[in-house]
Records
---
Amino acid sequence: MTVPRRFLLLAALLFWQGGLTFYGAVVIPIGARVLGSHREQAVITREVALVLQCVSLVTWGLFAWDNIVCRDPRKWRQRCRHFMKSGIVLTWCALGFLYMNLNKQFDPEKQSIVDISSFRFQHRLYLWILSVQWLLCVSYLVLTLQAWRAEDTAAGEKVREDEALGSPHFGVTTEPAVTLKEVRKGKEEGMQLRREEKSSAVDIFGVAQSPKSPYGGTKSIVHPTGKNAIGNFKKITKIPIFTPSPHSMAQVPS
């Protein structure tokens, strides 16, 4: 449902704010010029404003759905999106209230206004709140695109990690050869073993070291186990070594 959800959200937002921007910037000036006055154009605008209010309500529902489902790893961006969504709701309520007042004061048949001073003040306030709502929607769109990109990036990293560990993915179940922790531990032990192999052949007193194994302890055996998405790795096996010392052999009766 990720692709349909994102498509519906973008389509509704572009239809709402894109249509509002085009109508206010192009249709209203051309309509007023063709019809002869802004009051004749207002007869059409009052119907369009009601449709945009209904579309905005549907779009806000898609906003809420995306906020709940989207797994954005950044908490601050989630809070900003919730804040902007709440601001859009407040502006929607204010615009609905002003729309009803402006609609009562305007008579579409006679194209007359009851109180011209009150109508102009409320209409100017309506346009300012509409501008704030437009800014909130654009900011919300930018944060939403960033959240979607972060969500896809995190999902891709999770898929690569699952493939590296042999975890079930896309319905395919495989047995993990070795865990990621064991891989890292094996790499560290292999590096330590190589450092020991490259150590000096004499000690600090200049005495040559015997190539024989020490009296007791463990011995590390390195053997490859395979290759995965992380790369080649080796498994370290330690086996105990029990070699009697000359002192203990001297105490054995003949």
Note: The CA atoms of residues 23 and 48 lie 9 Å apart.
---
Amino acid sequence: MSVTAATMPKPETGTVLIVDDEEDTLQSYARMLRLEGRTVFTADNAEDGLREAERHHPDAVILDLRMPLMDGLAFLQRLRAREAPRATPVAIVTGDYFVEDVHGAALHALGAEIHFKPLWLEDLVALASRLLTVREGRPLHPLGFCHRAPDDTRS
């Protein structure tokens, strides 16, 4: 069976900004989303992430919560201050399983959804697709949060 342009899967589109201070995580996420056909911009700290957001106006942001100098919550507050309310869908990806106890209400009010590390690559692809769907005007999740249990062990 030959593959024609009509039968080939359509590559995904959309621009994603990834902000994470862990270089391996940053590069792995970026590589995987680029393989999926996404345009990806990266920043290894929140200040650079804000500059990238200003420069490229991404369709979605995937953001680490715990970073030096400025954390993900401060990044999100500054991002929201610069744009229309909740204009850019944002997912916080964190290893802090107590984030909702401390920052949950603020993150929810700013329109972010929360995911826990480790974020498996297939989950990353699904997350990016969902965020970009929100950008197109469809709802993310009724409560604004999506969780995967910390004890999820995949082989």
Note: The helical segments are 23-35, 46-56, 72-82, 99-109, 121-135.
---
Amino acid sequence: MTSVQSSSSQPGSIREILAPEPVAPVVALTEVPSFSVVIAAYQVADMIGDAIRSVLDQTVPALEVIVVDDGSPDDIESAVGLFGSRVTLLRREHRGAAATMNAGVEAASGDYVCFIGADDVFAPERLEALGDLAVVRPDIDVLTTDAWVSSHGQIFSRFYHDANPFETANQREAILERNFVFGHTAVRRARFVEVGGFDESIRWTSDWELWARLILAGSAIGLVNEPLATYRLHEATLSAKRLHQARGRLMTCGRILEHPSLTASERQRAERTADTIGERSRGERPRTRSSNAPVTPVHDHSTS
């Protein structure tokens, strides 16, 4: 665990950072890198305004805010149009969340691309905190923060807690068992492009597969240990998503098992994770305990 001094909004305040130890000496940046924000949108015209407003109200502004309409049948254009030239709207045919976010990254020009769900919100200092982390740990490719989890407008937990901790000691091992990365990440754009972005064949939980691919390729994930976003649960859709998410996790495990860098023990670990997911999706009691089924709802950016 390390800490970093807040850059502007609260002079003298210290932010707690959780991240793996650097593999080589790190020299802090002299300037804060730029952040583009991408919002994938599908049937969210009635709620996307809160997400956009929270991004525009940051203490350190984003370089740009890009909304990608995934062929939504509702009036996304009018909802986004309320913000004028401060938000760029891209329109495309319906292809799912992974393809939509990839399109947003392709259009972005920031050093990092930060994702937010169209029905979620950022705290005003979130981009500032991510920038502080990027300055002191330029070796880290994926940045995130803790978040509040809410339902019916009431916050009931933090995303990270004792049963769902953020991993620092062995991220390579942990990502084979569970998605420990809160999905409103900021990813170094060049690294995102280098590894190929989100796998568009995985319609649900494609973020887990990307984090696994990045970590297995040598990237690290860093966390500002403050709840600087609110992840909103919508109970009406949770049961409908459960089966889709299980299928997405199984596809993710299959992609992970194809990775050429896996050791024999890592392959066994990933296979056990896939077995546990399969058993739970069929309503069976898992034969072995796994940390793979989250106590806190798994975040995904799926636009359906």
Note: Residues 288-299 have pLDDT under 50 and may be disordered.
---
Amino acid sequence: MPTAIIPARGGSVEIPKKNIRKLGRKPLVVWSIEFALNMGFRTIINTDDSGIAEVCEGFECEVYERPEDVHQGHAINPVLDCIDFLSIAEDEPIFLMLPTAPFRREADYHQAIQKLEHSPAVIGVTLSKPLHSLRYMVGEELQPIIDCNVNSQRQDVAPLYEVTGSLFLSTTRSLFFNKTFHVPGAVAQVMPWSVDINSWDDLELARKLAG
């Protein structure tokens, strides 16, 4: 049985208590919990916040309150923490599901599990803007991020994809040794409907999509 690890920290700089703010009729973190449970996954919540733990304990998932330092830095840290202190088989498929990416499709997860049979990791991605369309802002001055033809047509350049928080998949063994999902040979699962909530504008968009 795959294991889904949902790291839900209490601190958020831009949106305080983001993981338990309402999206539709339920807290944000609940979207990921319900999806994982509906998929039949062992579902683990790793949190440093008693309020988040209380919300999650109403569901048939495992809830672990861990020290705050576990949730400092990258979201891989709570995953490695769970592998370290829980009994998870070394060949177990492990999903990292960020609660800030609430919109998922079951078909993507089934496909990712199949891809893991031939790849060390599967990472959810969504189509991005091409590099020649992106700019740094220095003050108010725009500067291209790469030396390229800024007048290129979108259809004339290779499509570019960005990693989304919706899906990361690997095995316990790979994560134990590599400490990351981003390993050589990792393959993509394209997830066009993914929305990552990192700002108030993102949350407003997600609320409109949620209805």
Note: The longest strand covers residues 161-171.
